Q: What sequence folds into this?
């Protein structure tokens, strides 16, 4: 098979409704050069037709783009080597969203779903010389409004209510962290493919035996041909992770057919999540040929791992567990939610994906949840997750709404889910399909969810249950029985918020201004969302705000917080915990980031404590909302749009490290200390407990040997402590003098403390290494320097006699700025 990518020579223009379509496409006026893949906004920006959509309040002035229809056109010649093939097809990997395509004047596609690809035979439409492609993109909002007028307004959270009728990335309608930009255009590649015969599909649903000593790799190959394939053959090769051949097979091919063969591999190299082992990837190569003539070749990478979702009664708590077991090892899933990394999707390059996912790995995460209001991500996203060992919780693309279930909607959705299951099911990183985000929660909140009803869901006020409870599980069972399916997130059967089973979204904190110190009370069997807002880096804000707007409550900065009462809630949490910061933006940013850092730490620390070993997996996951942003904004993200980590990023890195310590009040005058290990062997260590007065006087010191049990939390000690507002407890876990983990317990709220100058010093040991020390207890020590520095740790609690050495990749001679509480 030969292919040519159609990425050059494209033009676009705004549709002129006063002209016929033919006249508009052939007119000479108004055309601009266009990028494919691309969307209209990016080309208008590139051509200088609009200001930067992210700057200031430009979002408001640019809504006209999404309200207009747009034309794309391209002329090209068919290369001779393609003309000689028996079949030539035009392939569109993604059209956003209502698109009609004409090839050489013949209508070939009518698209109404952004998540579908199209493959159209055009052999008989080819012309010698120049061939033309015309695409009309119609504005999505009017289409949704028309359908809404016909079928009714439906309940939802976030965005315009008509979005439920449009199969477009739902966040394009605006969300509580994202702007409204209704994009249109050929957002994924366009290409020509030519062949006499081709491999239409390669599917290898590998299965690892229970004893892990062997794996079966059934290979299914769908062949398409323009004629009988007399004497053709299909060669199958399984390559080991090092590229060497493991085994081969040859199958005869005589016609269009599905060919099958099963390989058995002894002692396979197993694929593990990050932090639990390596990520070796096998490769299956299928070659369709006759003699020396190769018709087509396809390959697929495989990670061989045994996957189970374990839901069983707990020994000491009500309900059931909810944890993933990989290669017979229970996994505590620590990580974050993932949203689309840009409002304008073609701008997210493979390198940008790599930088984002490397940040997740460097933060000791082992799971990302692809949220249901975005997109089925690009292949490169899942390829990188396979390589890096990042487990993927994959929502299907439905979020925060009571979607319709009329026949046309079901037909479109069935095609969408079928196609994306087939595209993604070979990735070892994906460990679950989930039907939606928060749709059950919304339905329950309005009294529209009756779990006992099992009749015709389409006649109820929650009709999309027919998708989540019938269509999707049937498709998953047919196309990908190797993975569990879950109806939604959160979902727990009769009560979507039940903390004793299923997964949970813990939003009681933030939405109600309840103190973040109460996060331990919000534990669930698997917490798949929780979070706290914070400002991004001041440099990120400066990229979208004029200098005179760089103050905490400016019009621009308030505009760049889409959360309901977002600025007020940030101010409320600061007021609860800290003295009101000074007048500078930098001080206010630090205060908001301090609160986020503390909140995330309390949550993960307390929930990971509940990962107690076999039969006591009371909390098996903590996924913070969210890892990333789609534009420069104040949000719940751990890392802002410019890939600058917030202090909470370093907090989550410590809390998800292979070894972590926790300390908390266990009564009025008692504290409890625990440790957590993700290793599969015991760890003998020394626990050091010191009590300091805030003025730097050491009150007490204690050391004792401890043993951390494998792959679980271990309660290390509980003791009486005379706690008051002038003492802080610092604990360390040491092995042969090396510090494996630290934790501390401070009197709160911090606003009541009178902290003396802690005497923090930062000493440069070499070009990229610094040592941080303190003469008295120091809270929230945060270092900044030149842009782009990659700190090994930050946002530190520093105590006398416990210097912390940090690696700062990219550090130059720029002065290091130190902030602290």
A:
């Amino acid at each position: 098979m030969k292919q040519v990518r159609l990425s050059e020579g494209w033009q676009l223009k705004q549709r002129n409704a006063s002209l016929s379509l033919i006249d508009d496409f052939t007119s000479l006026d108004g055309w601009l050069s266009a990028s494919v893949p691309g969307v209209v906004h990016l080309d208008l920006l590139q051509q200088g037709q609009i200001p930067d959509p992210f700057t200031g309040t430009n979002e408001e002035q640019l809504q006209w783009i999404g309200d207009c229809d747009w034309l794309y056109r391209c002329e090209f010649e068919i290369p001779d080597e393609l003309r000689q093939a028996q079949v030539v097809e035009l392939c569109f990997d993604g059209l956003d969203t209502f698109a009609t395509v004409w090839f050489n004047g013949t209508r070939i596609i009518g698209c109404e779903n952004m998540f579908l690809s199209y493959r159209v035979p055009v052999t008989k439409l080819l012309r010698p010389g120049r061939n033309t492609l015309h695409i009309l993109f119609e504005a999505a909002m009017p289409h949704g409004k028309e359908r809404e007028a016909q079928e009714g307004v439906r309940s939802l959270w976030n965005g315009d209510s008509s979005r439920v009728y449009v199969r477009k990335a739902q966040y394009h309608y605006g969300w509580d962290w994202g702007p409204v930009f209704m994009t249109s255009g050929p957002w994924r590649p366009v290409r020509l493919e030519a062949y006499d015969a081709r491999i239409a599909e390669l599917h290898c649903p590998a299965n690892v035996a229970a004893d892990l000593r062997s794996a079966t790799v059934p290979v299914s190959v769908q062949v398409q041909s323009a004629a009988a394939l007399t004497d053709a053959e299909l060669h199958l090769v399984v390559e080991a992770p090092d590229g060497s051949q493991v085994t081969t097979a040859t199958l005869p091919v005589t016609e269009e057919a599905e060919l099958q063969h099963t390989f058995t591999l002894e002692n396979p190299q197993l694929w593990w999540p990050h932090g639990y082992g390596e990520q070796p990837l096998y490769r299956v190569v299928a070659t369709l040929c006759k003699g020396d003539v190769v018709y087509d070749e396809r390959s697929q990478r495989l990670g061989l791992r045994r996957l189970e979702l374990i839901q069983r009664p707990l020994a000491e708590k009500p309900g059931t567990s909810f944890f993933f077991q990989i290669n017979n090892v229970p996994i505590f899933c620590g990580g974050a939610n993932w949203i689309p990394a840009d409002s304008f999707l073609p701008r997210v390059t493979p390198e940008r994906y790599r930088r984002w996912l490397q940040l997740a790995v460097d933060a000791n995460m082992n799971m990302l949840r692809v949220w249901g209001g975005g997109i089925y991500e690009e292949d490169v996203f899942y390829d990188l997750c396979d390589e890096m060992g990042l487990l993927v919780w994959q929502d299907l693309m439905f979020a925060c709404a009571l979607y319709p279930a009329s026949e046309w909607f079901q037909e479109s959705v069935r095609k969408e889910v079928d196609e994306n299951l087939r595209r993604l099911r070979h990735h070892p990183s994906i460990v679950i399909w989930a039907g939606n985000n928060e749709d059950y929660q919304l339905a329950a909140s309005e009294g529209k969810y009756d779990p006992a009803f099992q009749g015709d869901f389409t006649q109820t006020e929650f009709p999309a249950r027919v998708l989540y409870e019938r269509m999707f599980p049937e498709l998953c069972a047919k196309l990908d029985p190797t993975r569990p399916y879950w109806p939604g997130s959160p979902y727990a059967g009769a009560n979507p918020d039940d903390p004793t089973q299923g997964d949970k979204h813990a939003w009681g904190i933030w939405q109600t201004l309840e103190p973040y110190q109460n996060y331990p009370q919000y534990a669930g069997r698997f917490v798949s969302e929780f979070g706290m807002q914070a400002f991004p880096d001041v440099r990120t804000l400066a990229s979208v705000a004029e200098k005179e707007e760089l103050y905490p409550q400016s019009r621009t900065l308030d505009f760049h917080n889409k959360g309901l009462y977002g600025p007020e809630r940030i101010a409320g949490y600061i007021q609860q915990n800290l003295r009101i910061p000074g007048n500078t933006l930098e001080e206010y940013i630090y205060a908001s980031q301090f609160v986020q850092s503390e909140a995330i730490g309390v949550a993960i620390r307390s929930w990971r404590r509940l990962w107690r070993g076999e039969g006591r997996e009371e909390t098996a996951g903590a996924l913070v909302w969210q890892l990333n942003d789609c534009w420069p904004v104040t949000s719940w993200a751990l890392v802002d749009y410019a890939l600058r980590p917030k202090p909470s990023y370093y907090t989550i890195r410590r809390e998800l490290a292979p070894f972590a310590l926790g300390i908390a009040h266990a009564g009025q005058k008692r504290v409890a200390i625990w440790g957590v290990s993700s290793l599969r062997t015991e760890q003998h260590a020394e626990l050091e407990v010191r009590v300091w007065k805030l003025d730097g006087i050491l009150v007490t010191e204690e050391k004792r040997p401890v043993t951390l049990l494998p792959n679980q939390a271990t309660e290390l000690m509980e003791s009486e402590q005379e706690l008051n507002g002038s003492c802080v407890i610092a604990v360390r876990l040491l092995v042969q003098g090396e510090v494996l983990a630290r934790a501390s317990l401070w009197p709160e709220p911090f606003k009541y403390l009178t902290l003396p100058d802690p005497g923090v010093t930062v000493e440069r040991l070499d070009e990229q290494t610094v040592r941080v020390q303190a003469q008295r207890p120091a809270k929230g020590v945060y270092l900044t320097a030149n842009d782009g520095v990659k700190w090994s740790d930050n946002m530190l609690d520093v105590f006398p006699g416990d210097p912390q050495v940090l690696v700062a990749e990219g550090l130059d001679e720029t002065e290091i700025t130190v902030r602290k509480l």
Summary: Residues 585-608 form the longest helix (24 residues). DSSP finds 17 helices and 45 strands in the chain.
